[in-house]
Amino acid sequence: MRLASFNVENLFDRARAMNLKDAADGKPILERFAELNALLAQPSYSSADKKRMAKLIMELDLEKSDTGDFVILRRNRGGLVKRPKSGGVEIIAEGRADWVGSLELRDEPIDEQAMRNTARVMRDIEADVLGVIEVESRPVLRDFNANVIAAPGGEIFRHAMVIDGNDARGIDVGLLTRQEFPIGVLRSHVDDMLTERDPIFSRDCAEFEVTAPSGARILLMLNHFKSKGFGSQQSSNAKRHAQAKRVAEIYDERIAMGIKNIAVMGDFNDTSDSESLRPLIEGTNLKDIFLHPKFEDGGFPGTYGNCAANNKIDFILLSPALFDKVTGGGVFRKGMWPGARAKRWEAYPEVARKEDAASDHAAVWADIKL
To answer: What predicted TM-score, i.e. pTM, was given to this entire model?
Structure first.
């Protein structure tokens, strides 16, 4: 069985603020969006809240309209804002119960060549079981599989599953498997909470049970931890630490239940030597596929961006029972931008520009004899 994990960075559509040429340009937009969303969700709005919300609405280009370049304010019923002719914005609601609607990020289509290269990676890695990170929804994954991976002449996956997670930006985790690897029991942890209003997982720790042709069962735990893209470093580190701690607890619970074949994988947005990931990396008996003697890293220690050691953020962690069955593994970088001058690795000829890249992430794979 070939097991793989790949952050596809969306398949058809991606939030505009996350699709800019320079990711740093989108950071303040995402931070304002997150802050405004949190304020709007409060049961009651103080004078200070209203003042701050009005300022954020204007900074998000919503002063004159509910539709800005990057954000849409949907107001279905009730009153939230008033826009005086003299200019500015006034919050007229006293709390969340006074209006019905939502704040949403605007999407735009993925670059067509990048889309094709994403499908090419998903075909060429030849995985039997493929964890996908940052996918919009199950219908999107299903349609991408049937219409893009399938052309020209690609072998489609038989099973596709996504559980809708906690992120409003359409960056969930999902799974594609071949005919001989049906998906069985599913579990979601979107409701695991730090506090009454603060879920542990930014997306989900989705559990998928897959059966191999031999009859052996493997439990996959797919994750996409809190990014470093926005918010303070301290709060982001604390969030990832809480996520790693909870995944470690779930893993230990499954081991105690007698489940031996477990893989924890995905984009953890931090390195294996970080304090944030310590509960998972050092607090369990999980083993990183990168440490297996038959694993080939392709000459680069990382999986993201320039693939330096401080960019090793994509993981396949295996329980001892699975690690002992590994026959090979590696990192697939052909869909990544190799650099404009000295090419760091072999890439598809179609990756002629950075915008053509399938993703900023490499795919990681492991061959396991089950």
So the answer is: 0.84
